[in-house]
Amino acid sequence: MTAETINVNGRRISYHSSGGSERTVVLVHGNSSSASTWRPLLDGQFGQRFRCLALDLPGHGNSAPAPREEYSLPGYASVLAGFAADTDAADAVFVGWSLGGHVVIEAAPSLLQASGFVIFGTPPVASAAQMGEAFLPNPAMNIGFSATVSEADAVAYASSFTAPGSPIALDQFTGDILRTDGAAREGLLASVGEGRFADQVAIVTALRQPLAILHGQDEQLVSLAYLQHLSIPTLWRGKVQVIPGAGHAAHVEQPEAFAGLLTEFITDLG
Fold first, then answer.
1. What is the dihedral of CA 43, 46, 47, 50, to 10 degrees?
2. Who's near 193: CB < 8 A, 6+ residues apart?
3. CA 167, 262, 80, 155: dihedral to nearest 10 degrees?
4. Residue among 38, 74, 40 nearest 176 (CA)
5. Confidence category of residue 193, pLDDT binned at 50, 70, 90
6. Contact assessment for residue 184 and residue 56, using Cβ atoms and an 8 Å cutoff
7. How far is the CA of 3 from the CAs of 38, 39, 49, 53, 172, in angstroms?
8. Whether pLDDT at 160 is above 90
């Protein structure tokens, strides 16, 4: 995994790349995370085969912070579209985890050459009012929208990423949570409350490219029933793909199963 930087929309964006040369895969992390969350994928056989690009969103990881008003789904989507264009990745498969999945959906109408999309930990919603149905009640989610986060808060938030009783070490999540610009969380909450995001249900319904939705069987934050209720014409294999032994962070908890599904999705693209 190689660390690099690029200027996108006037912002310094950090990203990691893998050594693979086959189809490009752009990976977008979740709220208060970073590109390092994709290390198992980039350093494994998947990254050795495919050209993986994992960016740090503004205010996350090693990317430069942004003005508070740019910490929003439209702001992040603009960065993603610019990043894809500037790294010759316009025809990539775009993979988004949690917030990253919402960013991928928001950017999809601008990613006309994309080969396909993969989201997990991400329920597409049409409005803020729909979030109560799309997400499971979990008080830890409030931490993801708080400007100030203590170490105890970071542990509580990270605990919601994995399946209950998971042996996964939480420090790989808590470090990213604590280093994230607090204004990014606060700004995201404000933008969502103001309705500054697209109708994601309409976007996924109108997609021409295949969309894979993955879901950890022991997910603590997202409702599987809600996902299964959606009608998406290009949904890969016609249903949500459930990953046993995983929660919200399936790419970390079950990296081999996760990489296997991504590989199968890419293979099906032809």
1. 180
2. 128
3. -10
4. 38
5. confident
6. no
7. 12, 11, 18, 10, 18
8. yes
Rg (alpha carbons) of the chain, rounded to whole number:
17
Distance CA 111, CA 161 (A): 28
73 touches 196 (CB < 8 A): yes
User: Which residues, 6 or more positions from 54, have their beta carbon under 8 angstroms from its beta carbon?
Assistant: 15, 16, 17, 26, 27, 28, 29, 35, 38, 41, 42
Q: How many other CB atoms are found less than 10 A from the CB of residue 217?
A: 14
Q: What is the mean pLDDT of the chain?
A: 96
Write down the pTM of the prediction: 0.97
Alpha carbon distance 226, 219 (integer Å): 13
What is the span of the domain harbouring residue 242?
A: 2-269
- Give the strand pairing for 50-55 and 11-17: antiparallel
234: how many CB neighbours lie within 10 A of its CB? 16
Q: How many domains does the chain have?
A: 1
Instruction: Tell me how far apart the alpha carbons of residues 158 and 20 are, in angstroms, rounded to a whole number.
Output: 30
CA dihedral for 152, 157, 161, 163, sign (positive or negative): positive
Amino acid at 56: D
| Parallel/antiparallel/unpaired status of strands 2-8 and 93-97 | unpaired
Kindly tell me if the per-residue pLDDT of 69 is higher than 90: no
pLDDT greater than 80 at residue 83? yes
